[in-house]
Task: structure prediction
Amino acid sequence: MNQWADYLTDDAIEKLDTYSSQSDGSPEMPKETGFYQFCKNRIELHKSINDIKNVLTTKEVNLQDSYIGTIGDKGSGYLNLSIGLLNSDNVNIVETKFFKGKKKNIQTFLKGINEINNNCYSKDLINLIAALNDKLTEPISSIDYFIYAKKNLDLIMRIMYLQKGRWQFLACSMIY
Result:
């Protein structure tokens, strides 16, 4: 019973301003200032961009190293499979055949979020977001757009040579 009385009292106190404004025709005073929400949204945007950048900087993971066998005189063959996420550091290095997104679109997005992050608290933020939306040729709807998978064939050649009266092995690695 006591909770119900508290609810009725609290509700009446919050509504009192609205009721009095309606009865005398004066405008109602806002409960919150718009500046608080404005600042809160900017801070949340800044945190979200940093979260995106942290996820994209995850290191490449080697999923599988498979021994194929001896490939004649060329040496031993290994098939390596690795996956990673495209980010500002590696987007120019990773070949387009290893991911499904458009490289130019990804570069534009990564450059755009860096600009937005650097100018998150400036008056130009809205213009930067609008410019980024205009520059993107297709929407980026999921993280799959940034995933790349690489397959490498490594040939490890063993060459024997004589050094100081003993046979030595030299291992060379070739990536195809």
Q: What stands out?
A: Residues 40-175 form one domain. Residues 152 and 162 are 31 Å apart (CA to CA). The longest helix spans residues 2-24. The longest strand covers residues 147-163.
